[in-house]
Amino acid sequence: MTTAPSSDTPTRKRLKPGERRAQILQTLAAMLQEPGNERITTAALAKRLQVSEAALYRHFASKAQMFEGLLDFIEQTVLSLVQQIAGEEAVLGTLTLEEGRARAARIASVLLQFAEKNPGMVRMMVGDALQGENERLQARMNQLLDKVESTLRQCLRPAAGAADAADAAARMHDAQVAANLLMSFVQGRWLRFVRTGFKRLPTEHWDACVAILV
């Protein structure tokens, strides 16, 4: 007679393909925020998940594709937040100078908060975790940062018809400089966050800093 398995015997829950894929990405992100800058190998990732490397490759064709999955999350989340704050007025160029500065400041604040809540992700955002990986991943990260800076520039540019041509050109140049300064500050804070082992928070003294920056 067949004996039923004991209720004390541990059983591993069988995950659906989508759930396993999400679990792999979550584990990769968690490993990225651990101390040390060693490259994460598929062997180490598989060991953490208690599966074989072959099991990883059933869901992702390569390690680069796993990193790309995290980049998808970063890109979708960051761009959605940034565009929501900027609004259609930034695209149309109808923001007043005060409104534009306020929205640019909010965008910078959100970028810092996102990094603070996602330490593993910020290692990718500064390129630290992408060194030695597929160059296309870093290029894609750079494109995301360029898009964010472009949106900051849209927020800070002069409203259409707000000044004569010469003054508008000068203010447009000022908007480019201000957007670049904000992005440089944000990226600097991200980098410091990583370099200090996530001890120095990106949002440290933010209210005082934004009063100077914008």
Write the layout of secondary structure elements.
Blueprint: H1 17-32, H2 42-49, H3 53-57, H4 63-92, H5 97-117, H6 119-125, H7 135-156, H8 165-195, H9 206-213
Per DSSP E runs of 2 or more residues, the count of β-strands stands at 0
The outline comes out as elongated
Oligomer: single chain
Helical content class: 55-70%
- The structure class reads mainly alpha
What can be said about the biggest beta sheet?
A: none
Topology pattern, helix = H, strand = E: HHHHHHHHH
Contiguous low-pLDDT stretches (5 residues minimum) are 1-11
- Determine the number of helices (DSSP H or I, runs of at least 4 residues): 9
The amount of beta strand, in percent, is under 5%
Distance between the termini: 78 Å
Describe this structure in words.
The protein is mainly α and 214 residues long. The chain is 69% helix and 0% strand. It has 9 helices and no strands. It has helices at 17-32, 42-49, 53-57, 63-92, 97-117, 119-125, 135-156, 165-195, 206-213. Helix 1 packs across helix 4, helix 5 crosses helix 6 and helix 5 runs parallel beside helix 8. It starts with 16 loop residues before the first helix and ends with a helix. Residues 1-11 have low confidence and may be disordered.
